[in-house]
Specification:
Helix 2 packs parallel to helix 3 and helix 6 crosses helix 8 (196-209). The protein is an alpha/beta fold. The protein starts with 6 loop residues before the first strand and ends with a strand. 30% of the residues are buried. Strands 2-1-3-4-5 form a five-stranded parallel sheet, sandwiched between helices. The protein has helices at 15-27, 38-48, 64-74, 88-97, 109-124, 161-172, 180-188, 196-209, and strands at 7-11, 31-35, 52-56, 79-83, 101-104, 135-138, 141-144, 149-152, 155-157, 177-179, 220-223, 227-230. Bound molecules: calcium ion. Calcium ion is lined by residues 13-14, 56, 58-59. Calcium ion binds at residues 13-14, 56, 58-59.
């Protein structure tokens, strides 16, 4: 085993799902480790210090959120939740507890690997160092931080200050879901309450200005009941 591969800790009690995740991630060049309960997952986390955790929420001994909570006491290790549950509340609660993203079962291999790459890439970036990143280009969208300008396919798009801040936040976290609460906190500050409507109105304006129509997700995905995600082109 080559030592420069990313170590992934897979915490999942379903044996078939665990084998699938192990096979898929190993084939993609990662070094997967396995645990089948919350307690085992925590023990493995302490002894192996993985680069990322793939976590099933429904574990036999404890709710997977216990593991998120425990890991977050000590570490910023990225956590992607594997959610078989239908309710958005579980995802939002897991994200609020400190998970970085989620995939809903059944998921495609392509989707899972894209999430892994996004989180590992974000983990390599220094915290808070994203706002002065000069120019960023994704999917034909160019965001110029210094001039606070946005272009789509070379054409300038006029955004308000708030709209620019929202788009800039999404682009800086491209590929990752951002919850409504997290976005409101970043854009309007921690004391702003009841801002979801305000956020949605701004998002609708941004998407219209970027030329997106309902059902067209070239740039931004609306994760219903959870938040928004900027689409990456990798
Ligand atoms: Ca399970």
């Amino acid at each position: 085993m080559s030592s420069n591969r990313y170590k992934l800790l897979i915490v999942e009690d379903d044996r078939q799902m665990r084998s699938l995740l192990t096979a898929v991630t190993e084939a993609a060049g990662y070094a997967p480790l396995n645990a089948s309960s919350c307690a085992e997952g925590l023990a493995m986390f302490s002894s192996h210090l993985p680069d990322l955790i793939l976590l099933d929420l429904g574990l036999p001994d404890q709710d997977g959120r216990r593991l998120i909570h425990a890991v977050r006491q000590a570490s910023a290790c990225p956590i992607i939740v594997l959610s078989a549950r239908l309710g958005e509340n579980d995802k939002v609660e897991a994200l609020d507890e400190g998970a970085n993203d989620y995939v809903t079962k059944p998921f495609s291999t392509v989707e899972l690997l894209a999430r892994l790459r996004s989180e590992l890439r974000a983990a390599r970036r220094p915290a808070g160092g994203q706002q002065s990143a000069g120019k960023i280009q994704i999917n034909g969208l160019t965001l110029d931080h210094d001039l606070r300008r946005v272009y789509v396919d070379g054409q300038e798009i006029r955004l308000t200050q708030i709209e620019f801040n929202i788009l800039s936040l999404l682009v800086a976290n491209s590929g990752r879901v951002l919850t409504y609460a997290a976005m409101i906190r970043e854009v309007w500050g921690p004391t702003d309450v009841g801002g979801v409507k305000k956020l949605q109105v701004n998002m609708a304006n941004i998407r219209r200005k970027l030329g997106e129509r309902p059902g067209d997700n070239r740039f931004i995905l609306n994760e219903l009941g959870v938040g928004y995600r900027f689409v990456t082109d990798e």
